[in-house]
Structure formats: structure tokens, C-alpha cells
Amino acid sequence: MKRCAILSLVVVFTVAWLGFAADPPPLSVAEGKLSKVEKDSITFQPRGEKGKFGKAITLKITGTSNFSSVSHQERAGKPVLVQRKIEASDLKGNQLIAVIYSSTPKGDSVLLAAVAQPME
Question: Rounded to whole angstroms, how far apart are CA atoms 111 and 62?
Fold first, then answer.
């Protein structure tokens, strides 16, 4: 009887733990202007309502953060969008950027992906 109760308790805790662990991290999307690029983070001002830039947000760069730039090319006489992989070090201040980021349980904002317009 004790073994059955202990086994039932282990199963209940395992199911409860899996339920908490299964919650996906929240995703956020923003576009704006880069303020600062550092080795392990970027700071940018998201564009808010009415097109004005808001308060700066700092996003942590991890080993899985992806960076790319987008531009136009002409192929067979037609304009085509081209996305090219870049490094964080290729980014410059005042560059326009769109980001996808998430928050950790500690409250840190982590950059998942960024697409930048090339500087002209």
C-alpha cells in the first residue's frame, strides 16, 4: 500500500513539473533604431504609436542569436528581396532594425533574431 502511495505521489509531481516546464517562453517583436551595439548586447529604440521612437530596450546576445540584413537585387529584370547573414559587429548605431526577442525567467530580454536595413 505504501509503495502504491509513493508511486502515485511521484507520478503527480512529475506530471505537475512537466506542466510547468511545457510553458513556452513569451515572444515579442519590435522594430526601431539601433542606439548601441556591444559585444554581448544591443540597445535600440522601438518605434511606438504614431511613428515616434520610444524608450530604449537592451537585448542580450547569446550564441543562438541570429543577425541578417535585407536588401534589393534585380534578377531577371525583377526586384527581389535578399536576406544575408551578418554578425553583430556589422551593425551600426542609427541603423533601422526589426527584432524578435523573449524574456528569461530571471527577467532578462534575450535577442532571438534581428534583421537590419543596410546603412546607406
Answer: 7
Residue type, 26: P
SS3 13: helix
Q: Which residues, 6 or more positions from 91, have their beta carbon under 8 angstroms from its beta carbon?
A: 34, 37, 42, 67, 97, 114, 116
Tell the burial category of 114 from Cβ atoms under 10 Å away from its Cβ (0-12, 13-18, 19+). buried
For the segment 43-101, what is each residue's pLDDT rounded down to a tens digit? 999 998 888 899 999 999 999 999 999 998 999 999 999 999 999 999 998 999 999 99
Contact 96, 44 (CB under 8 A): no
CATH number of 26-116: 2.40.50.320
Sorted by where each begins, the domain ranges of the chain are 26-116
Give pTM, 2 decimals: 0.75
